[in-house]
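Title: Comparing notes on inverse folding

I've been comparing how different people in this forum approach sequence design from structure. To keep things fair, I'm posting one structure and asking everyone to reply with a full sequence. Here's the target:
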């Protein structure tokens, strides 16, 4: 077992972070754009100081300079980052564990804003998150229509002529479909798919695309997760049952996360859903608490957003058609339903600094004991996306046949936590595969000659859905 840095890290640091890094490039461009719209001279000067800091960071990264300690911006995690950096003995950008390098990049970017006067809460990636949600219009409308029908059916409790076995089978199929929608929702992860056009993004989403992608789920433990949830529901039908979702991306993916959350509540599989966003702008597209409010605002007035040409649609000479009255009604239903769930405490948002820490989730019991205890109260904790998976498994180069329950270490058997990882593969670290599967996939991708690199796992084409019952 060794760090994934040595195969994925240096290559992707150059391709993904230099010189056209989404994180760095759009951060600087976005700040310039925001500054140009300012009339407050103090705010303009404040913004220029941020640009200077980002530009310096860009230079250091491109020229493989040593990582420097974070400036104290008042957050408690600065010491954690700097202690770990000291233990690494002043590494340079191309000679540092990949996970730490990525986390350090976004954490250092956040210091420029935290230390400013006028830009403390500014999210440089908000514009990109919103743009991606707009580009997902066909899938948003499709799911909004289905969701409204589904919630009505679940709430009406219409008598059925099906046998109990047929009802159970239908419920499990519905659970599987909702989770797989949630799994593939991160197909528009901004940090990897930065060159997609408006049409390309639309092709990644919708029912037909999801069906075609089922064959690309290499491991699918949804049946085991479903049985665990149903057992808890049957054991105490009127009791409190919490499900936690550790979020990944905003935009369309947050939208499908809320689709899943609303379904789980309406189906009685949970009485409360706790959403765990990040506390600072993170990995370009990760969810912040403000993204939840922004999404609800869009759903409250959808015509304003969807009838306005985006910069991408302008570039392709496309003007979006106004939404129909039915489409507006279906989106408004989502706003009303999710707002009500939030107001009544069934859908809550709970950020924690631990999620933007420099290390893996193996540290959870010792670094964030209160959070650890909270998660043990949950029926199941759903971890979304590639980074959460890497942190669960220590971002280590495990043999691909190592069981998922082993790779997640202290969050595995006996931890008191049921873990469900929904992950499209975008980095080398993959566990729980059948013997020979890695070799087969390397052959398909043409990298069979490289016994270590796992290029098939970089594109997001393949996925794993893995479950560990730590309550056993």
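Reply #1:
Here's my take.
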């Amino acid at each position: 077992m060794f760090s994934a840095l040595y195969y994925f890290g240096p290559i992707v640091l150059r391709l993904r972070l230099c010189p056209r890094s989404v994180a760095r490039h759009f951060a600087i461009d976005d700040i310039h754009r925001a500054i140009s719209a300012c009339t407050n001279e103090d705010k303009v000067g404040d913004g220029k100081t941020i640009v200077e800091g980002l530009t310096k960071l860009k230079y250091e990264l491109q020229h493989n300079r040593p990582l420097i300690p974070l400036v104290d911006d008042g957050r408690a995690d600065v010491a954690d980052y700097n202690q770990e950096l000291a233990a690494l003995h002043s590494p340079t950008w191309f000679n540092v564990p990949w996970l730490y390098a990525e986390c350090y990049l976004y954490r250092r970017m956040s210091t420029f804003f935290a230390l400013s006067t006028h830009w403390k809460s500014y999210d440089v990636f908000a514009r990109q998150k919103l743009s991606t949600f707009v580009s997902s219009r066909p899938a948003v409308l499709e799911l909004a229509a289905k969701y409204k029908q589904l919630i009505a059916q679940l709430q009406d409790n219409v008598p059925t002529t099906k046998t109990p076995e047929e009802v159970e089978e239908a419920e499990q199929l519905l659970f599987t479909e909702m989770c797989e929608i949630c799994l593939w929702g991160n197909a528009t992860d901004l940090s990897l798919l930065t060159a997609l056009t408006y049409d390309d993004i639309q092709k990644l989403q919708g029912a037909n695309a999801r069906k075609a992608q089922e064959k690309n789920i290499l491991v699918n433990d949804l049946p085991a997760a479903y049985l665990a949830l149903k057992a808890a529901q049957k054991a105490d039908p009127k009791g409190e049952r919490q499900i936690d979702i550790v979020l990944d991306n905003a935009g369309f993916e947050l939208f499908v996360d809320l689709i899943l959350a609303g379904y789980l509540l309406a189906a009685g599989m949970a009485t409360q859903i706790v959403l765990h966003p990040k506390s600072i702008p993170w990995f370009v597209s990760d969810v912040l608490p403000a993204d939840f409010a922004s999404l609800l605002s869009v759903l409250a007035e959808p015509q304003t957003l969807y009838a306005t040409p985006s910069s991408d649609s302008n570039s392709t000479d496309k003007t979006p058609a106004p939404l129909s009255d039915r489409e507006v009604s279906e989106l408004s239903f989502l706003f009303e339903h999710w707002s009500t769930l939030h107001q009544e405490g069934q859908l809550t948002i709970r950020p924690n600094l631990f999620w933007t820490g420099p290390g893996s989730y193996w540290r959870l019991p010792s670094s964030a004991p209160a959070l650890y205890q909270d998660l043990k109260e949950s029926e199941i904790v759903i971890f979304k996306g590639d980074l959460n998976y890497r942190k669960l498994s220590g971002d280590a180069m495990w043999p691909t046949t190592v069981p998922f329950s082993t790779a997640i270490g202290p969050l595995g058997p006996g931890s008191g936590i049921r873990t469900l990882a929904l992950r499209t593969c975008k980095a080398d670290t993959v566990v729980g595969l059948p013997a020979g599967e890695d070799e087969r996939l390397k052959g398909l991708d043409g990298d069979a000659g490289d016994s270590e690199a796992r290029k098939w796992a970089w594109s997001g084409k393949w996925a794993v859905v893995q479950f560990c019952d730590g309550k056993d």
